[in-house]
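User: Here's a structure from my thesis project, written as structure tokens. My advisor, Dr. K., wants to see whether a designed sequence matches the one we expressed. Can you design one independently, without my sequence as a hint?
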């Protein structure tokens, strides 16, 4: 039986990989056609020549260390390296033997270029993304952050890379955020909102997406994308409050008009009976008259609430309004052993409806007097606030309001008074807001309440 002998060199010439063999003195003993093409040398230039003499630049590359390690330790090695003279990337596989080395290599330049291009695309997407983009290890420690993340939280990259996410989350949100993160570590994409603390201490509302990082089928970390939604949250809250006020205003107008007409008739006839029928117990009539007056007061506040801009805006002096109100409430303050101390700078005139602002000052000063049943002092101070507005503060030494109740101030029909309606403070908020101003209330139980009013000097309301 005839068996054809196959020349091994013929096989090596046919393979797609470049191949050459070196003896123990580093001389080429065989080079296939693909190797001569990639190395840009012919057979005569390579066979019998020392590889380090033909390619002296390789002595400074990792190639030199890898070849010597393979011979010294008799281990096969696979590596990638760039050849500056050839301007090419190679994947190299070295196999040692007692006689020298067998080397297979491939041109992977195009693959490297494509990979580098993709890497640069991803890097650009990461670094130039307007959203904060970052990555964590499985324990939640930062591995990378982009510039937007630095701007969002106020920390430098080197500071964040020494931290985990947990010190950055507000205490009330930490457990909830940890739960979302643990789900992401287990492979589930998470979308949620949380609160973070900026480097300067203020709170940021965030919308966050957590995406698991998967390498070779294994989760090795978590990507994060965060966006500041603080302004959106404030706008949403203002819109909701505006809608509530509009609804309450519409309801208030309906109630007030329905009550006011029959109330006028009842009060007129009651007065007529009181004057002509002396035999009727006048005490009962007085009680009825007081209760009707109370209903009138409620309907008046409802109408102000419903239509706070029913008058023309004019330039007025706030000092005069406050003086008028203090004079008006002077007897009530005296009866309650309350001293009203007014400390007003020379304030600029503001664009306003004087009658409505007087109603605000009446509500606030009257509340302060009633908050001090055992007497005390009310301090009313005012000063210019920059070049665009004025700042008025009304501080009492009353019983104060708890934090829980303070959050409800301004809610319709919520009040801390036995016979109150809650409409006075809601009307106050509505009037100040309609003038482009703001109201801030702070209080300490047992020490008193401070109300800060800001009003712009000029606000176009026509």
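Assistant: Designed independently from the structure alone:
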């Amino acid at each position: 039986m005839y068996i054809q002998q196959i020349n091994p060199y013929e096989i090596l010439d046919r393979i797609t990989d470049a191949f050459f063999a070196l003896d123990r003195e580093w001389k080429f003993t065989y080079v296939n056609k693909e190797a001569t093409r990639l190395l840009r040398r012919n057979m005569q230039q390579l066979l019998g020549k020392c590889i380090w003499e033909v390619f002296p630049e390789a002595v400074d590359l990792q190639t030199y260390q890898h070849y010597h390690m393979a011979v010294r330790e008799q281990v096969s090695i696979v590596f990638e390296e760039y050849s500056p003279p050839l301007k090419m990337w190679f994947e190299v596989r070295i196999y040692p033997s007692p006689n020298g080395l067998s080397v297979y290599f491939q041109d992977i330049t195009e693959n490297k270029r494509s990979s580098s291009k993709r890497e640069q695309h991803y890097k650009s997407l990461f670094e130039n993304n307007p959203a904060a983009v970052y990555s964590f290890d499985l324990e939640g420690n930062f591995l990378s952050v982009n510039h937007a993340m630095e701007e969002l939280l106020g920390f430098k990259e080197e500071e964040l890379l020494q931290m985990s996410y947990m010190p950055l989350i507000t205490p009330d949100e930490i457990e909830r955020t940890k739960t979302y993160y643990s789900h992401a570590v287990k492979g589930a994409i998470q979308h949620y909102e949380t609160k973070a603390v900026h480097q300067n201490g203020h709170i940021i509302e965030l919308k966050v997406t957590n995406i698991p990082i998967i390498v070779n089928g294994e989760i090795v970390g978590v990507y994060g994308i965060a966006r500041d939604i603080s302004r959106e949250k404030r706008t949403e809250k203002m819109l909701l409050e505006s809608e509530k006020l509009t609804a309450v205003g519409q309801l208030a107008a309906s109630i007030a008009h329905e009550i006011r007409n029959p109330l006028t008739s009842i009060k007129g006839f009651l007065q007529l009976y009181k004057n002509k029928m002396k035999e009727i117990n006048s005490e009962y009539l007085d009680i009825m008259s007081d209760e009707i007056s109370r209903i009138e007061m409620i309907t008046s506040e409802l109408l102000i609430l419903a239509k706070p801009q029913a008058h023309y805006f004019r330039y007025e002096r706030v000092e005069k309004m406050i003086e008028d109100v203090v004079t008006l409430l002077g007897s009530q303050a005296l009866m309650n052993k309350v001293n009203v101390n007014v400390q007003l700078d020379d304030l600029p005139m503001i664009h306003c409806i004087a009658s409505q602002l007087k109603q605000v000052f009446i509500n606030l000063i009257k509340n302060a007097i009633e908050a001090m049943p055992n007497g005390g002092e009310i301090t009313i101070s005012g000063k210019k606030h920059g070049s665009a507005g004025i700042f008025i503060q009304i501080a009492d030494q009353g019983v104060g309001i708890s934090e829980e109740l303070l959050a409800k101030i301004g809610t319709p029909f919520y009040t801390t008074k036995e016979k109150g309606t809650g409409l006075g403070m809601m009307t106050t908020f509505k009037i100040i807001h309609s003038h482009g101003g703001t109201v801030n209330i702070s209080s300490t139980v047992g020490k008193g309440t401070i109300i800060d009013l800001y009003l712009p000097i000029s606000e176009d309301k026509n």
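When you compare it with your expressed construct, this may help: The longest helix spans residues 230-276.
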